[in-house]
Please model this.
Amino acid sequence: MKIAIFCGSVSDKLIMQASARILDKFNISYKTYVISAHRLPDILSKTIKKIESIEKGVELIIAGAGLSAHLPGFIASKTVLPVIGVPIHHQKNGLLGGIDALFSIVQMPKDVPVATVGINNAYNAALLAIHILSIKYQDIKKSLIKFRMDVKEKLVNEIDQYL
Model:
């Protein structure tokens, strides 16, 4: 398992599935955990220690959270693995449209960085993780280059339809 995906709640998992789909497309191993930083901090800490072990091979963490969005920062405070935060907004809760979650993740204090993507953009979080892994793994880099070329070709074909 190269990547651990963390969700603060079951409802966050629905949005974070976009990360899983793109990781599947690139054949990158991952595991998803649903653990609240506020409600289960001890279990979350133990899980982070467990996945950090050399045997597990986790190299990156993607963490999605809404409202106060404490999960990515909490995880970053417990590990030296890179953490990519996904601010989450659900229609049913949160009056601020995810801006509260965005600010909570992007405004981490000095010395505890969390990379941050756009609101509900778990897809880009996984792509950022793939870019990072491509530095070390040539097979991932080749797949990423092909992916980018395919995206470009698709866009050019769409433009050609209108010319």
